[in-house]
Specification:
Elements lengths: L6 E9 L2 E10 L4 E6 L8 H11 L3 E11 L7 E3 L1 H18 L5 H6 L4 E3 L4 H69 L6 H15 L2 H20 L4 H20 L4 H21 L4
Parallel strand pairs: 3-4
Antiparallel strand pairs: 1-2, 2-4, 5-6
Length: 286
């Protein structure tokens, strides 16, 4: 199976501690490039996340997002720092005596450090979130695989279309050879020159070699076979497929340069269109 570098996956993890939401999205990139955005209290998980991404992915610009919402009902037992509160009350009373004002108990409780809540068990939260990340990365790989299957089908269709164009050109080769011979005979007759049959054959051989496209057609068929083999094998094959597109282009350009009638010209143009369509999609393959 081949995989696209363009995909998206999302998964929500719930627990008594609250809700964590993972999102992964990626686009094509020459190498693997990862970006992780998570709340500050989960920064320690970044090395683990990067290692898992490297284990499962080879190429692509990958962005990972973690959103976290704590469960207010899961707040631990509140405690009061009595010593600090007493100091604040004494200080507040002194201010009250000096200013003839009232003390607001809420203001005392709001002072940093007076009221303390039991912190979440971050180890258990991290474990749950990492387990959720393992699930979302499987979803993400499946999404890349599904898109890769679509790309593979599209490329296979274009490869068959290339073989159709090769068949069209091959069908015109006998006609082209006959046309070359007639054209050369016509020129010789116009010059009113005695025809040396051996020289005529030499000229025809020279023209045939100069304008022969059989070799290019054979290589195009070979490239189609090799590309299908790469697609069937699957894996991280984007770079190899991109190289094959360069080889296809080379043969199509040579075919166009040797074109001597409109049929071959049209076939060469159609080949370049098909190759470009494949090349654009192959840029998204891992």
């Amino acid at each position: 199976m081949i995989h696209s570098m363009t995909a998206y996956a999302r998964r929500e993890i719930k627990g008594e501690w609250g809700t964590g939401t993972w999102e992964i999205r990626s686009v094509n990139q020459r190498y693997l490039e990862t970006f992780i955005r998570a709340p500050e209290q989960f920064r320690g998980m970044e090395p683990v996340i990067r290692e898992r991404l490297r284990k499962h992915l080879q190429r692509g610009k990958v962005e990972v997002f973690l959103k976290f919402a704590a469960n207010p009902a899961h707040v631990g037992e509140l405690t009061i720092n009595e010593s600090l509160a007493e100091q604040l009350i004494k200080s507040a009373q002194w201010v009250q005596n000096q200013s003839n004002g009232d003390i607001n108990p809420v203001d005392i409780l709001r002072w940093p450090g007076v009221m303390e809540a039991e912190e979440l068990d971050m180890d258990s939260v991290n474990t749950a979130l990492i387990a959720g990340f393992d699930q979302v990365i499987e979803d993400f790989k499946q999404a890349r695989g599904d898109e890769g299957a679509n790309l593979q089908e599209m490329i296979a269709t274009r490869l068959d279309a290339i073989l159709e164009q090769v068949t069209i050109v091959e069908g015109h080769l006998p006609e082209i050879a006959k046309w070359q011979r007639e054209k050369l005979n016509q020129k010789l007759e116009e010059l009113k020159t005695d025809i040396d049959e051996s020289r005529l054959e030499q000229e025809l051989i020279y023209l045939a070699q100069k304008q022969d496209v059989a070799e290019e057609l054979d290589r195009l068929k070979s490239h189609v076979k090799e590309t299908k083999k790469i697609l069937t094998k699957g894996g991280a094959c984007g770079r190899r497929l991109d190289f094959m597109m360069q080889e296809f282009n080379r043969e199509a350009n040579t075919l166009a340069s040797k074109s001597i009638n409109s049929d071959i010209t049209n076939a060469a143009v159609e080949l370049k269109v098909l190759i470009e369509q494949m090349r654009e999609q192959i840029q998204n393959i891992e």
